[in-house]
Sequence to fold (310 residues):
Amino acid sequence: MPDTLVVNEIYLSLQGESTFAGLPCVFVRLTACNLRCSYCDTAYAFAEGRKRSLAEVRAEVLRLAEPFGRGQSTVHSPPAFAEASAGAQSTRLRRGFGGQAVHGPQSPDPSFILHPSSMPRGEDGGRNGDPCVRATGLAKPRLPLVELTGGEPLLQSSSLPLMRALCDDGFTVLLETSGALDLSLVDPRVRRIMDLKCPSSGEAGRNRWENLACLGSTDEIKFVIGTVEDYQWAKAAVLDRRLAGICPLLFSWVHPLAPEQAHPSLKPVPPGQAPLSRTELAERIIADGLPVRFQVQLHKLLWPAQQRGV
Fold:
């Protein structure tokens, strides 16, 4: 296995998506992607990048993370709601933004409920890891987070030992992946944020449904939704495949591309699809009572959509 990666960029910013949104995160963006989704906002990663050794990449992550070691470098989660549900134990959520419980109309605020994803993985990928967490329900994930993104990180086989090494370093490691490649070789300590491509992406035929069997409660499934047809497709997938029983689900609104982001190789949106605004998406989720988390890309609210390194 090669000990190098072609890297587009490495930078420190705030996590803009997923249940970890808002937390400091080092992003390792790898070069190359095998898909051409209609809404892709990182087409510059298709080919731009330079070869770097795994040791060099790891050293850069550690350098960017160094300021967090000088002070408070862990996340304290809010206290549990003592009467969250029948038989609930007094505890705290692990990794503050680490999951969303499926709840009914009479349930309390889900931010106070211990989701299965809040339990740590042991060396075997199980939930019986840190004995302090087992005893107290407390965990203090190291900040910053580290995310491998792209492009498609799994196109480069050396992404696998890099993720293992970063987990060994004690980082909470996230993997942003299209879902079109095999997830079974990814270290079970990694939080896999896997897309299921909706129709407007132009790549829905590339979904690797077998990957659902690889996911656990600390992982996340993301649907990027820009049309009514996307929403209907995603809703059917959530309900028909009972995805809420696997892990937290994200419905992410498609932010329109700036003109300079519209790469000529991107797939067109299939004809006949009706655009869906972010307000309409939120209202449909509420009306249909879906057990999903609505999200927008936080970094695009803070910085220009086309700005890199954020």
User: Anything to note?
Assistant: The chain has two domains: 4-72+141-302, 75-140. The longest strand covers residues 4-14.
